[in-house]
Amino acid sequence: MRTPQGFLPFPARTLGLLLPEFSRAGKGPSKGAGGGCPVGQNGAMDRFVGHIAGIGTAAGTRLVVGLWDSSRFGRFADVMVETAAGHRTLLAPERGIADYVRATYTFDEVVITPVTWTLTRQQLTLDAGVLRLSADIGRTTVLGRALALIPARLAASPRWLTLVNPLARMMMKGVRTAGSAGNGRREYYGVLSIRSITGASASWNGQDLGALAPVTPPVRFGFSSAPPAPALVAVVTTILHATGQAA
User: Fold this and answer.
1) What are the CA-CA distances from residue 106 to residues 29, 58, 98, 190 (Å)?
2) pLDDT classification of 165: cutoffs 50, 70, 90
3) Cα 62 from chain centroid (whole Å)
């Protein structure tokens, strides 16, 4: 990912509080480092830090785009696509990433393809072979401003996210902050900020998917959906492995 000078792709507080090894100069941890760490008797933990964009289209295709600045795989992006007919596809840049994601979520098809993207304060552009996407990024939402008041360490804490999960379910249909990641693992979404997506153009195999639309019905990849209103979410995703399970 290319990061314009002066723009941090996720809140600056995340760098100092969650990833002390992540350089402000823009150099992420080496591949396989920084995103996986032991957590004692609770097994092992993988942490993915970056953004998730949830986008709906007039054609009924919904996109969930993961833009990860730090993870056990280094920096990468992947895309989960669900058509109006319910067909679920994962676009991933490497087989190892695809296998990890597929062990956590459910898909009807997996495509290994280069995924390149650029994220600025105003726009997200992405090319994933069969999928091309450009999205306009708006202001921080009211909920996003409220979430920014929560200390980063607390916002990403699995205990906190378990506690607030019932509230998240009430506030946004289909959204969860804690749940099963399959194979005896637990997954937690710690949201640090939310910015609206105000416009988007996307094509699939060269076919225009139409204008921006809500992410409805909820996508069916895992225990949680993206919020109905299209948005770019700064997030820390934590996968907690079962005791004795290799990360």
Assistant:
1) 29, 24, 11, 21
2) low
3) 14
Name the residue ranges covered by the structural domains of the chain.
Answer: 35-240
> From CA 32, how far away is CA 177, in angstroms rounded?
25
Q: Is 73 exposed, middle or buried (0-12, 13-18, 19+ CB in 10 A)?
A: buried
Instruction: Tell me the whole-structure pTM to 2 decimals.
Output: 0.78
117 strand-pairing partners: 126
Residue type at 177 in one-letter notation: T
Number of residues in the chain:
247
Whether the upstream peptide bond of residue 214 has omega within 30° of 0, thus cis, is no
Can you read off the two tokens belonging to residue 70? 């730090």
Q: What is the C-alpha to C-alpha distance for residues 70 and 29, in angstroms, rounded to an integer?
A: 7
Residue-wise pLDDT for 17-40, tens only, equals 444 333 222 333 333 333 444 333
